[in-house]
Design goal:
Elements (H helix, E strand, L loop, with lengths): L2 H10 L10 H24 L10 H24 L9 H14 L3 H23 L38
Helix pairs in contact: 1-2, 2-3, 4-5
Length: 167
């Protein structure tokens, strides 16, 4: 999947939380979000004359327009590695627990909850980077068309990346 296809797919599946998303779809969308935030910040500064810390009108509108597709594509990406889409909210839940522990002055529990939040973020990142399960899993068919058979169930193409010369 190329950049434009990923953006079209994510906006086309604006609120579709079922199914699976390949790595390319997810990471092209992440690049789009990063570039969109950069451009919206630039436009806020140039067009509206807003500086750092002044608020961001265009950036807020961009964030609002891309919030639901981002949550949806993340859920579909987690489905591709055979995980529930709800895992994306687990780090935020632990941050809430951390804040509660800080409010009641429970320093040890606050530290434990903060460490758990970091561990959950790392696990989430690992799952988002991992290759999806080949073939059908509990969330649907393989978005890349793999059959799940060992030894040649899918269609493979020669890489355009030149060999490194070391074998």
């Amino acid at each position: 999947m190329v950049f434009q296809d990923a953006i079209k797919t994510c906006f086309g599946k604006f609120a579709t939380f079922s199914g699976r998303a390949p790595r390319s779809e997810y990471w092209w969308w992440v690049l789009f979000i990063i570039l969109g935030n950069f451009v919206s910040g630039f436009l806020d500064g140039i067009v509206l004359g807003l500086g750092v810390g002044d608020g961001s009108i265009i950036g807020a509108l961009f964030g609002l327009a891309t919030l639901l597709p981002t949550i949806a594509v993340t859920a579909r990406r987690l489905h591709d590695v055979n995980r529930s889409g709800w895992w994306q909210v687990a780090p935020y839940g632990m941050l809430i627990v951390t804040a509660i522990m800080a409010a009641i002055n429970a320093a040890i529990l606050q530290t434990a909850a903060a460490i758990a939040a970091v561990v959950l973020l790392v696990a989430l990142l690992v799952w988002l980077v991992r290759a999806g399960t080949t073939g059908t899993n509990g969330f649907g068919p393989d978005p890349l068309g793999g059959s799940g058979e060992k030894g040649g169930g899918g269609t493979y193409h020669r890489s355009s990346i030149p060999p490194s010369g070391r074998d």
